[in-house]
Amino acid sequence: MFGMAANVGEEEATVSLVDVLEEDEELENEASAVLGGSDSEKCSYPEGYVKRQALYACNTCTPKGGEPAGICLACSYKCHEGHDLFELYTKRNFRCDCGNDKFGEMECKLYADKEKVNSGNKYSHNFFGLYCTCDRPYPDPEDEAPDEMIQCIVCEDWFHGRHLGCVVPDCVELQEMICESCMNKTAFLWNYAAHIAVPPMTKVSPCKGEEDVKVEVENDEEEKKINNEKPKSSADEKVQVNGTSACKRKHQEEAEGSSEEGCRLREMKASGWSRTLQGAVFWPSAWRTKLCTCTDCKVLYTDAGVSFLLDEMDTVLAYENKGKSTMQAEQAGGAEGRDPLMSALNNLNRVQQLEIIHGYNDMKTELKDFLQRFAAEGKVVTPEDIRHFFEQQQSRKRRRANTGQYYCS
């Protein structure tokens, strides 16, 4: 779903061979990572609410105006082949809906004994092919602006970068994002954002002089739960911060290195560091390990419905790594049964199999050699070059046919 639209100028656009090969490899790796973590043969329904899986929505069976529903990878292949599907990337804690009451008379071909409704599933406009605060499809035929789509790790909706209310930092693929709406619903996360989010936090107090500086501290419900105190009076809502030349480092060390007996969140609130409470927030790698795990904070996460933030294996990156490992293990073990090409070859006789494999290997080798010449010379590949290559392929194929070449078993 991460994608960047391309601007097209008046002249014919050209790309280098390196760009083509890198993009192709990136797309292949991404597909393997997302799909490799899900089973393409068996419906995931018996597994219950799966921790994370690749999901799809069927516009043919559950169009906009009806009940939203999600289907697993296997059902998208076996039960909804040829249908108009929306790719939802991945969702957490979801159970396959295929064949339940939302699909009318249609039954799941892979697992028939399903409950009428999966009450634990959460749905959004994504299940009707709509995304972001602009409530538009992706790709959007009416949107010519180059932009990328980024997923919020809490609501799992996808947003255009320009609609996040902030500047999207570089290397966004290495980070996680929480949209402004979800930040406001879990207001205590703003305290973490002031200390560990990307870009670096800003300080309300100047932290330059030797005099005391008064800093406002938010008196919200989460603070009352953490501190186990009665509501403070307005006079108590001030905290004195002694400003010194080393205070920035001191507060950061206290926030990141608090003792196990203390509450890290409470210390962050008392540090005086603040951040503008608007716009999406981007988080660096391994930021979840810096969240406080004291008893009171765990209750806070549960009440806010974000306990999954304490699970490092909840991340999409962890899921993708699992998918890559699964694919590599299958390839190393010779697990060819799930490969569509191998399945098709198994239905052919030995002679046909050898002919196809021979032709494929020939074309692969020749295409690689052909393109490597362009890469070595730093040239771009034009449509005429590609046409010339396949004309040569057809010419060689005709010569082999005329000579009566064949392969015996």
TrEMBL record:
PROSITE patterns listed in its UniProt record: ZF_UBR
Basic and acidic residues biased stretches: 215-239
Keywords for the protein's UniProt record, in alphabetical order: Isopeptide bond, Metal-binding, Phosphoprotein, Transferase, Ubl conjugation, Ubl conjugation pathway, Zinc, Zinc-finger
Pathway membership, UniProt: Protein modification; protein ubiquitination
This enzyme's EC code(s): 2.3.2.27
Residue stretches making up the UBR-type domain: 41-113
Residue spans, zinc finger UBR-type: 41-113
Record field: catalytic activity: S-ubiquitinyl-[E2 ubiquitin-conjugating enzyme]-L-cysteine + [acceptor protein]-L-lysine = [E2 ubiquitin-conjugating enzyme]-L-cysteine + N(6)-ubiquitinyl-[acceptor protein]-L-lysine
The keyword Ribosomal protein is annotated on this UniProt entry: no
Enzyme class (EC, first level): transferase
InterPro entries in alphabetical order: UBR7, UBR7-like_UBR-box, Znf_FYVE_PHD, Znf_RING/FYVE/PHD, Znf_UBR
MF annotations from Gene Ontology: ubiquitin protein ligase activity; zinc ion binding
Name of the featured protein: Putative E3 ubiquitin-protein ligase UBR7
Organism: Carassius auratus
